[in-house]
Amino acid sequence: MDAILAVIVGLGLAAACGLRAFVPVLGIALASKAGFVTLGPSFEWLASWPAIAALGVATAAEITSSLVPVVAHALDAVAAPVATVAGGLVMASQLGGPIGIDIEGMNPMLQWGAGLIAGGGIATAVHAGSATVRAGSSTVSAGLLAPVYGAIETVLAFVASVLAVVVPILFATLVGAVLAIAAAIIIYIVRRRLARRPALATA
After folding, report:
1. What is the residue extent of each domain of the chain?
2. Cα(111)–Cα(70) distance, rounded to whole angstroms?
3. Residue among 46, 15, 51, 40 at smallest CA distance from 28
4. What is residue 39's DSSP assignment?
C-alpha cells in the first residue's frame, strides 16, 4: 500500500509540475520537512532550509512572471524542459524509502531514468496542454486573459500539490474521474465529426 501511495504522490506532483515547475518541488520539500512524505536518501537535501529558501525564491519568481503576458509567453520555451526535470525530480524522490527500493544500491541512471520517463513525461504532457490553452486564450482575448489564466494555473498547481501529499487516494480518484470525463467528451466529439462526414460527402 505504501508503494502505491508513494507512486501516486510522485505522479500527482509531477503533473502539477506541468503547471508550475517549482510549486510541487517546494511542496514536497516542505512536506518532507513536516514529516508527511519520505524522500529517497539521495534527495534528503530537498528538505534542507537552504534548498527550501532557494525553491521559495524560484517559486515566487515563476508565479510573478506568469502574471505578465509577454514574459509568460517568452518563458514557455524554457519552462518546458524545466517542468520535465522538475517532474522527474519529484517522481525520482519517491523511488526510495516508502516503496522499499534501496536507492543507495541502485544505479542513479536507472533512478533518474524512471523518474524522467514517468514524472517527466507527465509534466511535459500537462505543460504542453496548458501552453496550448494559454496560447488560444491569448489569441481570443488579445492577451488580456493571460494573467487570469496564469493565476488559475498557479492555484491548480498548489491545490494538486497539497492533495497529492495529504489525500493521495482522493487525488488519484479525482484525476481518474477528470480523465474519464475528458476521454468521453473527446470520443463524443470525434464520433459527431465522423458522423457528419458522410452527410457532407453526399451533399
Report:
1. 2-166, 168-203
2. 37
3. 46
4. -
Cell of 46: 530537498
Q: Grid coordinates representing 110?
A: 536507472
CA distance 5 to 63: 28
**Around Cβ 48, how many Cβ atoms within 10 Å?**
13
Distance CA 8, CA 139 (A): 35
The grid cell for 70 is 509577454
- What pLDDT was estimated at residue 29? 93
Q: Where are the alpha helices (DSSP H) in the chain?
A: 2-17, 22-34, 49-66, 69-93, 108-115, 121-141, 146-166, 168-202
User: Whole-angstrom Cα distance, residue 42 to residue 102?
Assistant: 10
CA–CA distance, 94 with 8 (Å, rounded to integer): 9
Residue for grid cell 528538505: 47
* Separation CA 96–CA 9 (nearest Å): 13
Task: Say which residue the cell 496548458 belongs to.
Answer: 130
Half-sphere exposure (Cβ direction) of 121: Cα atoms closer than 13 Å: 6
Classify residue 95 by its DSSP letter: S
pLDDT at 166 over 90: no
User: In whole angstroms, what is the distance from residue 111 CA to residue 40 CA?
Assistant: 10
pTM over 0.85: no
- pLDDT category of residue 101 using cuts at 50, 70 and 90: very low
